[in-house]
Amino acid sequence: MKKEWQQSGVLARLQSRMRREKTLNTLLDRVRLREETVDRNQLIQDN
């Protein structure tokens, strides 16, 4: 099965997807998003 996947390119796609997921998970562990409420003088209607 591994040889078939190598020939068809499925194995390379799986490996790149696994690498991308691992990178995203590592970044999300490091980065913390913070929301802040900001008061404005003017109200933005379409926001």
Describe it for me?
- This protein is mainly alpha-helical and 47 residues long.
- It is built from two helices and no strands.
- The protein is elongated.
Strand content: under 5%
Q: Distance N terminus to C terminus?
A: 53 Å
The parts where pLDDT drops under 50 for at least 5 residues are none
Order of helices and strands: HH
How many helices? The count is 2
Overall strand count = 0
Radius of gyration: 22 Å
How much helical structure, as a percent, in the residues? 55-70%
Report the principal-axis shape: elongated
- By helix and strand content, what is the structural category? mainly alpha
| Average pLDDT | 83
Largest beta-sheet characterization:
none
List the topology elements.
Elements: H1 2-8, H2 10-30
